[in-house]
Amino acid sequence: MLQPYLLQKELGLSTCDQHGQRTMFFCEEDQRALCDSCLSAPEHKDHQVLPLETAADKCKNTLLEMWRILHTKEEKLQISLGTLRRREAQFTESSYTFKESVNTEYGKIHQSWRDEECQHLERLEQRSRDYLVNLEEKEHELSQQIQHLQEMLFQVEENLDKMPLAMIQDMPGTLKNKEELLLNKPELSYISWPVCPVTGMREMLMSFYRDITFDPESAHPHLILSEDLKRVQYGSICQDLPDKKGRFDASLVVLGAQKFTSGKHYWEVEVEDKTEWELGICKDSVRRKGLISSSSSGDISTLMGFICGNGFFLWDSEKTVNAAYLCKNWAFFWIMK
Fold this sequence. Notes:
Oligomer: single chain
Order of helices and strands: HEEHEHHHEEEEEE
Radius of gyration: 50 Å
Strand order of the largest sheet: 6-7-8-9
């Protein structure tokens, strides 16, 4: 602000426009140069007025202090900029290193899974070969037994045509052969597949875990729900419940309270020692009144299982059947596409 007046002074032009006198002072309130006449004017009586060079020195000192502050700030910003650029380069390098590390670790996991998969497939292949060999042996045994029975039948038929005395004399041998043949009962093998647990499968599934509870408004009157709505059992006495629109009145069914329209979801159901059960999912439009059939309704998809002797049979609503030896613990991962 003082620069024009200082420039005028250097050029010999620093004169007051109003009085024509040299400007020797500077008013800080009005920010203008003053001459002697201006200085005695009443409008500048209470103003802070300094000699022009004093005001210029004061302004210069202020500017120098401002320059030092700004210069220090600039140096700090330059240091920060340099640090930021180094961090950017370090981040780029570490990002690449981290990605390589992730790829390496997942490569190890994938290789481990591939090795595990090969081991499971080899075990299944070996079990399949052993089972086929066993079936062939049983088939051969049955063929021999059938052949012996046919020979025995032919021998009995020959004895029937013999004279009475010869028939009676040959009878003990025929009976002995019959007893031996009848004692040979065929043993049919059950398919027993080895357990093939996939490492990390449960941990992976738990990321989709959902806490499922029963919907009491849908439960058939013979089904008794626990207080926490997580257990259900059959009651021989029909409960006196309001016959609401959403309640099943004929089929022994209870729905879950949670609904899903998309995504991946996982939950567990314990059937304990039940010898027969049926689990599934359904659309909201499933028929609630009257008997429903899981195989005839497009609104339902079910998984059914029951125990028969030493065998455990499992099939879905598409009638895909599987059989296996009964084990103490079962885990079925049912994936709906």
